[in-house]
Specification:
The protein is 59% helix and 9% strand. The chain is built from 17 helices and ten strands. The longest helix has 44 residues.
């Protein structure tokens, strides 16, 4: 290491660790970018790891550019201008750029035209709307029973919006739509979400005037008619005279719970058919355009790595796979990272307190799980010293996060 580069004991431990997996929980202001940069420099200079055999995945293009600049400066300070010139060819990029780069080399394996491109956001939204409309039309033409349920549901609960959200979430879940029938837990979550929508609607109109005898009758009705009667009941709640009745609220909850138990199977079947239909049509449209979506970049690479020969080729490219902002990866990205890094050492940096991309389906519990339940040959290093904030600010931030049970990241410490 360069004697001019001063690192704390914990930073040095992270940089020099040769564990199979290094988990660095880096609080804000703890110098994580510096640690990542020094880690790459250390591996190249001290362990003779070729730069092209290190994959450094960042969350933004800006972060990738910043890391390149720091690496070039670091190598120049050490008198290695030759290595500084190689930085431009290093594998430092976002997860999507990384996946796209590999997909272009394996386009045939991914059943893609070598000249494929990325679909623009506005075209993606148009494509998805068209796919959803066509899938709904298919059910309407070919299955009157399911169509009846969907029509009643759609009148009140924006089913197209729900389907779009579900489709996009599936794209970041790491579960392929073709496998939806075997993904029982995922289906249960989707059904629960639909039931929750019904519950919310009932609670919004809990002060409607409802015939209590009617509710009791519905509760005891035959299973095949229950769902339709529930929809009608909620419709009456919405249009009835406003009046607060606590018993009605409880009875509605009871009816909804009963409906979920009796009708879950039917709803699951509808969701399976719709999801498969939407996926099939979306794929057809994208194939016509010779385009793939952002999520496709991840999922198609996961798919081709189901082929063990291809998986071995790709995972054999790297000695180290390093990931910054690991708290913001989604399940599909995590699945891809683990596959790519199956033959290499791993260096993951993150902090659950800094997870801000939940709206993009990031799941900070992935990093929290790695940190709290490390596997064998894993080094967990906590960088909790803050080098840029005042003691008073740090104290207040710790107080705020200390009250939130969902945040179990590092408390900040101050270095004057």
């Amino acid at each position: 290491m360069n004697p001019e580069v001063v690192l704390s004991d914990k930073q040095t431990e992270a940089v020099q660790s040769n564990a199979d997996t290094v988990i660095v929980a880096a609080a804000a202001g703890s110098g994580k970018t510096r640690v990542l940069t020094e880690k790459i420099i250390f591996e190249v200079l001290e362990r003779s790891v070729p730069m092209h055999r290190i994959a450094a995945i960042t969350y933004t293009n800006k972060a990738a550019d910043e890391m390149r600049i720091r690496l070039m400066e670091g190598f120049k300070k050490r008198g290695r201008a030759d290595l500084a010139r190689q930085v431009h060819h290093a594998q430092i990029m976002t997860i999507h750029a990384f996946a796209l780069d590999i997909l272009k080399k394996y386009s045939i394996d991914a059943s893609l035209d070598p000249g494929f491109g990325i679909i623009e956001d506005i075209d993606y939204q148009i494509m998805l709307d068209r796919a959803i409309n066509e899938a709904l039309s298919d059910i309407s033409r070919n299955d009157s029973a399911k169509s009846s349920v969907l029509n009643r549901f759609a009148e009140h609960y924006q089913i197209k919006k729900a389907l779009k959200t579900a489709y996009e979430e599936w794209g970041t879940s790491g579960i392929h739509p073709h496998s939806v029938e075997t993904a029982q837990s995922e289906l249960d979550e989707r059904v629960s979400a639909l039931v929750e929508m019904l519950t919310d609607a009932a609670q919004e109109h809990q002060d409607g005037l409802i015939d209590m005898q009617r509710i009791q009758k519905i509760k005891s009705s035959a299973p095949e008619s229950l769902f339709e009667q529930l929809i009608l009941l909620l419709s009456e709640i919405q249009s009835s005279t406003k009046r607060y009745l606590t018993p009605v609220k409880e009875e509605c909850r009871s009816v909804i719970s009963l409906a979920a138990d009796r009708e879950a199977s039917e709803v699951k079947n509808i969701l399976v058919n719709l999801t498969e239909g939407i996926h099939r049509r979306a794929e057809e449209i994208k194939q016509q355009l010779n385009r793939i979506s952002i999520n496709d970049q991840i999922n198609k690479l996961i798919e081709i790595m189901d082929n063990s020969e291809v998986a071995d080729e790709i995972s054999g490219l790297y000695d180290w796979v390093m990931v910054d902002e690991f708290q913001d990866v989604n399940p599909a990205q995590y699945k891809l990272i683990i596959r790519i890094a199956s033959c290499s050492r791993k260096f993951f940096v993150g902090d659950v307190r800094q997870s801000i991309y939940g709206f993009r389906h990031a799941d900070c519990s992935i990093f929290a799980g790695l940190n709290q339940h490390p596997e064998e040959k894993t080094a967990v290093i906590n960088l909790d010293e803050n080098y840029r904030s005042s003691p008073d600010l740090i104290s207040r931030v710790n107080q705020v996060y200390g009250k939130e049970s969902c945040y179990d990241g590092l408390p900040f410490g101050c270095v004057r």
